[in-house]
Design goal:
This is F-box domain-containing protein. The chain has a two-stranded antiparallel sheet with strand order 1-2. It has two domains: 44 residues; 44 residues, no CATH class. Helix 1 crosses helix 3 and helix 2 packs antiparallel against helix 3. With 90 residues, it is mostly helical. The relative contact order is 0.13. It contains six helices and two strands, in the order H-H-H-H-H-H-E-E.
């Protein structure tokens, strides 16, 4: 398993789901490294995530999310206000 490229493993993980990706991350260090890839978490985010983030003010906050996994988890934990606070993501 360690001989496989990390990009390949990350691509395979991206076809699972967030829960499965996290579960596989505890199986081995190879899966753990691959599970941190933005390739994996980009698949779990909505396709228009950049548009959504452009409509909020707190996305520019450095503590908002440092990578796609953090962004996914952040959005799961609490919705963000968009369009001047008139709408909430869920």
């Amino acid at each position: 398993m360690n001989d496989l490229p990390q990009d390949l493993i990350a691509n395979v993980l991206s076809f699972t789901g967030p829960r499965e990706s996290c579960r596989l991350a505890v199986v081995s260090s190879t899966f753990w490294s691959a599970s941190l890839s933005d390739t994996v978490w980009d698949r779990f985010l909505p396709p228009d995530i950049l548009s959504i983030l452009s409509r909020t003010t707190n996305a520019s906050d450095p503590d908002f999310a440092s990578n796609k996994k953090d962004l996914f988890l952040r959005l799961c934990e609490r919705p963000i206000l968009i369009d001047g606070g008139r709408k909430v993501t869920n």
